[in-house]
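Before relying on records like the one below, remember that each one covers exactly one chain. Contacts with other chains, cofactors or solvent are not represented anywhere in the record.
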Amino acid sequence: MRTNAKAGVVRGSLLTDPQARAWAFQIVAVIAVVAFGWFLFHNTQTNLAHRGITSGFGFLDNAAGFGIPQHLIDYSESDTYGRVFWVGLLNTLLVSVIGIILATIIGFILGVGRLSPNWLIRQIATVYIEVFRNIPPLLQIFFVYFAVLSPLPGPRNSLSLWDIIFINNRGVQMPAPSAGEGFWPFWMALALALALIAIVLLNRWARARRHATGQTFPVFWISLGLFIGIPWLSSLVFGGPFLWEIPELRRFNIRGGWVVIPELVSIVLALSIYTAAFIGETVRAGIQSVSHGQTEAAASLGLRPGRVLRLVIVPQALRVIIPPLTSQYLNLAKNSSLAAAIGYPDMVSLFAGTVLNQTGQAIETMAITMSVYLAISISISLLMNWYNKRIALIER
């Protein structure tokens, strides 16, 4: 009887213990997820076998056999599908990086403009935000591509800037750099690294000096001078790093230089304009979250409005701005997949489109494409979360 009673007590304690129940539910959930995943995998493999479709990633070694209008790395039609993957990945990253930079700049200007004492500036920023954030991004992409860029003149009647940059309906042709004779890449890379190290040390010294004495230092202009000056001195000593290939108007087209295709211009402009509207509201909310007493205290010390905003308001507002700003960066990176609608050669257009149609490897191509966007999003989240922790207030 005692043994049974003890057993009953033990059995009852396991059933009523919240921690034991939590572990039991988690184990059951994991088993259910694994079983469901195995069912999907087995069912897919069976269906592929019945239809005679081979699975695997061996197709990446096959020749692609098609051209790509824009590639940041060397590519030809004889290259493999694996090379196509890298071309699509770099094109996607190019749109995301440029779009994030432009959207951040425009968004911060809009956020500050929404709070400007000037009525006209405030209304322009308000109208911009209310218009562009309420129009779907795909329609804005179509508008820029078909209504803004397509009506531009042809190559023979290109809009010229100083006879070195040409704008037409085939894109923007601009000078392209190429390695010059006697150029030593090692020394140029070393010069750039030294310039970056000097800029970091300068920023730390200027911050410590400002905290100790309250005096500011023209960090931006000095940093820009270091970034340009050190590599320039290296080119004087070890040889010019670049030769510039200038585009020239031939009989029917413009040859030479670097061509920015209209699809890239359209997707970058449309996504930057669209995302900047949301960033502008985020910046406005962040600035308004800072107590007005901070502004009054800074003004009482004799700081000009520009320095009050840059040194007092924005550093405190960033703690409110960064979390929603991360979401906007993620949305822009994912919305870059809309570029397939106008034929821009990104991951969706190249890999989930052309490669899938040619190989029939639907599962593999879609899995790779989704993994790329997942990796990009996670990388942005990790970087922004690291920065958010770095600027967060530490309570004592």
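The CA atoms of residues 149 and 169 lie 6 Å apart.
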